[in-house]
Amino acid sequence: MELEYLEPSFIPSWHKPPSLLPVNRLRRELLHVVETYPVTIIIGQTGSGKTTQLPQMLNEAGWCDDGKVVAVTQPRRIAATSVASRVAEEMRCKLGEEVGYSIRFEDVTSAVTKIKFMTDGLLLREALVDPLLSRYSVIMVDEAHERSISTDILLGILKKIRKRRPELRIVISSATIQAHEFLRYFAGSGYDQDNQENPGGAIARIVSVEGRTYPVDCLFLESPPEDYLERTIRTVLDIHRHEPKGDILVFLTGREEITEVVERLTDSVASIGAEEHALLALPLYAGLTAEQQMYVFEPAPENTRKVVVSTNIAEASVTIDGVVYVIDCGFVKLRAYNPSTGVETLTKVPISKASAVQRAGRAGRTQPGKCFRLYTEQAYQNMPDVTPPEVQRSDMAPVILQLKALGIDDIVRFDFLTAPPAELMIRGFELLYSLGAIDDYAKLSRPLGLHMAELAVDPKMAKVLLSAASFGCLDEMLSIAAMTGAESGSVWVNHDDGKEHKELTRRKFAAEEGDHLTYLNVFKAFVTKGRKEMQWCRANGLDYKFMTRAVSVKAQLGRYLERFGVRVDKSAASQKATTAEAIQRCLTCGYFAHAGRMQPDGTFLPMTMSHHHHHSCNPGADGHDHHSHDHSDDITPALQSNLHRHIDFDRIVTLNESVAGSGQAIVKKTWEQRFDDEPYLESDVDEQVIMTIPFTGQVKLHSLLIYSEPGPTAPKSIRLFRNREDIDFSIASDLQAAQELEVPPIPTGSPQVIELPLKRAHFNSTTSVTLFFQDNQSDGDSDVTCVRYIGFKGDFAPLNREPVTVMYESAANPKDHKIIQGLEKTNSFLPGQ
């Protein structure tokens, strides 16, 4: 039965009439608290009605008068769209009129919309245009206890907005275990834990709308199962054979596990025999189409027990009535970002105690239930209390970019609910700097960084799109971005045609250059042959709704680029075929951090982001794209950005399921002289030396390199002054230096370059460096400071600056001090080069 054919009083997700929902018993109290306190924190189980009823209460109480809107954010798209549909039905209006929703690349609202459901990330994007979110009178953050990264950032933004807009009301829906953390966060200095009645003071208050729940018996295993999927199937069949009627909800970790269990349960139905014992197994995960997801909400046929096999999406985001039995595998897949590799993975980990309680609670909504936990009681005791928030395990680059675009420059001091690890922050800044989104002062670059923030895609893909026109592949990259960013399930659909047929259909679109080109082939085939033919999509194993959404996403991304002044010429794309190499080069502009070097054993070593620089993504005058993929094995002792210029794409392996091969990166370097003037030298009768080195632009210095003969003439110490060209011998010894370096003894034998690390914070925005070499503390010419070479490592602040080197040799007689090579390519000078 389709959703639209159900009567208003009987819908898949919520069967209980609104007047009977627990939240309605607290209508007067809730409205009073919202009116009185800037922040209201609501504790309520899924199904209590807080998400659907409170926005309607606020509308009826006048919070939507004078054109104002009540916003309700959700951590998941499925929740935003399904709840909006439900509320629109209750208010007897068409979806998109008084009640609407906005998710990424999809806006179903109008000028008369009063209640707007959206993802929390979408509301953050709205703040780019309206920093104070002035159109909203009340903002409700639902399921805040899930602690998605967008939710945490949104709460920080709302806390700042509240100071400028005291009339704004913030409502936070949370599980009990997290409620006081939110209260403490918003109350700030006004928080008083000794105040039992209201520790939040005049700022925030907690309201509990816990509905009546029935007891749930939690059953543990005596010993851990060898295979929890096998144990899941056995438990489902045992319940089906021996327990009274009632549907079953199974929690597993992902699509593969769910598909296997559903298929095996379906196969087992035939062996059960009698029709009165029928078993209907249904999957539920985010990758399903909306129609497939709605099946789980429909009542099972007569004499049939329904089994919903779900990810943690059924913990809180949706409510499935009729569930009496829950089977909890005890695991969940969490996204975890590895800052050393720059790769985000889904990792299977034990759930938290809070999640275990939440899962068990699904069995006690309509009658007493049972929860079968496929783990031991000791394993439960060892679980963490709560799941680590996403902000502590996610790529911070998109967050930093968005906060910068919102005008928050001092990200380190941003009031995070839970502070992210420093390593993740550093990695995020490095990536954004290498992409050119921020400058040397960590300020948002304009227009590039601002445009990257405004594009509703990952920063790496944003850089690719903004660079695509220069590679002649803009239309193709828009198609690829649409396919990878549609976020509406999977392009591939598993029909009942067998694995062999699935592989054959996919092979028709496969490109040896990689998955991105494969997606491009799929998109091109769809828009030319199958856009209006659902049967064509089915025959080729494609999701028709996914493909139509990708077409819409491409159009919206194109409008973004046109607003930025980028010409999106579709006719040119159709007239001239773009080479795969141009597309690969363009992709490297954003995804160079994912490059790796093949090792002798066939494995790949990921490159370190510290070796990349945003210059490297710009096409060079020679027509080659200058991608920063690799770092040379040699140490180039000069002021440098460690750039490797040209990548030979024919010899690079793309690590995905579509490509195999071997090869290596080919690198080239270019050098330019970047000193403003020759270094200024001065010495005195005490055999002391002052050297001042000016640069053409602002420089960030990382280390000083010195090359001297071993023995008494080698320098013992150096005092460095930044941006001080007035240093003379009368003050050089006593004036506070930016840094004082002790030079270690140079070993006898071959002379070598010694690298001395500098305090980078002391040498930002450097236009000149003055070095003071003190007397070596003995008489005669043998101890005169004698330096053969001075060099630096660092980065030029202005774009397109290149490595520089200064070389200097002194003599015993101060009058003979001279520059022997003012500017030089150091790799042709140093020993062993």
Automatic annotation (TrEMBL):
Residues 31-195 form the Helicase ATP-binding domain. The keyword Phosphoprotein does not apply. GO terms for cellular component: catalytic step 2 spliceosome; cytoplasm. It is an enzyme of class 3 (hydrolase). GO terms for molecular function: ATP binding; hydrolase activity; RNA binding; RNA helicase activity. It holds the Pfam family PITH. Residues 232-407 form the Helicase C-terminal domain. Residues 609-633 are annotated as: Disordered. Residues 632-812 form the PITH domain. It comes from the Eukaryota. Its EC number is 3.6.4.13. The keyword ATP-binding applies. Keywords: ATP-binding, Helicase, Hydrolase, Nucleotide-binding. Residues 622-633 have a biased composition (Basic and acidic residues). PANTHER family: ATP-DEPENDENT RNA HELICASE, ATP-DEPENDENT RNA HELICASE DHX35-RELATED. This is RNA helicase.
